[in-house]
């Protein structure tokens, strides 16, 4: 039996429209929920454990009957189908290490730096494997994803959480239908049993409790693409908007801690940098951005954040260190006024003056 025919043997005929939502039991808890991340200096490990990872739920956390769960793939495809959970887990899967970042509230201007960020390992089936089986038609330009959650967000009722991806991103090898996070089954509040994961893009695009993938000519029409999660386009004409998709260059300082008193003759600055594009460079400044010095940056793993470090010698006194990430294509963090503006940390050196480190 060929690999393609073996996969096809796991597929089901598409159900009647909406039947995939029969797996939904209830919302628990219902309504909007957010668990803020710890302060940056507590996010020291390369892989962020579940208990330290931020959590955002818009309309409530869906409780799913896994025996009834199925994923429907339809729309502008030659071969629509459905697949249940047992069959999905039999398909070839992969593990991706990726940053996971919340854009922030879609109700407020994107001017506050939040550092709702973590770095996790997702395991699941590549979305492009299922799209390849479905055989998209030439006019298919967007892949819509639908979750089993429903309800109200910011006074707006929605019968489902719906997002979209352009075909180019959806067909990328890194996009997964994930059923594990950090080597453990995906929990209910993390979107289990299966969620979409879109590495390098903001978490709003990674639809939780996913139940349907639909290929269409145009962008999805639900409120989470039309009303929420669009932002001013700095490269477009005045008033132009763009979807909240790819993650901008960003960084945060883990060491020293805010207001820490350092007695060591050497001052070590450490932190994390990330973006959607590629490896980042990082610079640090001790004079409010008037001058910058390059930091050492460790290589990126898949779509992970990158550790940076910088060591110098400072006289005793009060200091503030600032970090700035720049992607290889030249995009840098702004100094202020944006959701990804530079992070700074004040600290004090109490040791004696020392010579510069060789």
UniProtKB/TrEMBL annotation:
InterPro entries: Ig_E-set, MoCF_OxRdtse_dimer, Mopterin_OxRdtase_euk, OxRdtase_Mopterin-bd_dom, OxRdtase_Mopterin-bd_sf. Coiled coil: none annotated. The keyword Phosphoprotein does not apply. It comes from the Eukaryota. Residues 59-222 form the Oxidoreductase molybdopterin-binding domain. GO terms for cellular component: mitochondrion. Residues 244-300 form the Moybdenum cofactor oxidoreductase dimerisation domain. One of its GO terms (molecular function) is sulfite oxidase activity. Keywords: Metal-binding, Molybdenum, Oxidoreductase. Its cofactor is Mo-molybdopterin. Residues 1-20, 224-243 are annotated as: Disordered. PANTHER family: SULFITE OXIDASE, MITOCHONDRIAL, SULFITE REDUCTASE. This is Sulfite oxidase. It comes from Cladosporium halotolerans. The lineage of its organism: Eukaryota, Fungi, Dikarya, Ascomycota, Pezizomycotina.
């Amino acid at each position: 039996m060929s690999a393609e025919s073996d996969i096809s043997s796991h597929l089901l005929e598409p159900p009647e429209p909406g039947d995939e939502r029969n797996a939904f039991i209830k919302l628990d808890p219902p309504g909007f929920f957010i668990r803020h991340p710890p302060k940056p200096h507590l996010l020291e490990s390369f892989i962020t454990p579940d208990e330290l990872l931020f959590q955002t739920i818009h309309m409530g956390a869906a409780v799913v009957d896994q025996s009834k769960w199925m994923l429907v793939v339809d729309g502008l495809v030659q071969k629509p189908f459905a697949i249940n959970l047992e069959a999905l887990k039999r398909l070839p899967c992969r593990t991706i290490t990726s940053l996971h970042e919340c854009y922030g509230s879609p109700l407020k201007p994107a001017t506050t730096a939040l550092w709702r960020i973590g770095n996790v390992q997702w395991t699941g089936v590549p979305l492009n494997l299922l799209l390849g089986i479905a055989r998209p038609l030439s006019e298919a330009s967007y892949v819509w994803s639908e979750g089993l959650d429903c309800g109200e967000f910011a006074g707006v009722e929605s019968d489902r959480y719906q997002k979209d991806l352009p075909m180019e991103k959806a067909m990328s090898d890194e996009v997964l239908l994930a059923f594990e996070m950090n080597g453990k089954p995906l929990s209910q509040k993390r979107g289990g049993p299966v969620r979409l994961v879109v590495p390098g893009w903001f978490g709003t695009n990674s639809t939780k409790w996913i139940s349907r993938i639909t290929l269409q000519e145009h962008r999805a029409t639900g409120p989470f693409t039309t009303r929420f999660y669009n932002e001013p386009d700095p490269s477009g004409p005045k008033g132009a908007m763009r979807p909240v998709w790819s993650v901008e260059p960003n960084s945060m300082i883990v060491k020293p801690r805010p207001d820490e008193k350092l007695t060591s003759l050497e001052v070590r600055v450490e932190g994390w940098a990330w973006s959607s594009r590629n490896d980042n460079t990082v610079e640090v400044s001790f004079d409010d951005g008037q001058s910058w010095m390059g930091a050492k940056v460790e290589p990126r793993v898949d779509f992970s954040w990158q550790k940076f470090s910088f060591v110098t010698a400072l006289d005793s006194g009060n200091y503030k260190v600032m970090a700035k990430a720049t992607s290889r294509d030249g995009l840098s963090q702004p100094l202020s006024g944006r959701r990804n503006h530079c992070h700074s940390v004040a600290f004090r050196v109490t040791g004696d003056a020392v010579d510069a480190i060789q």
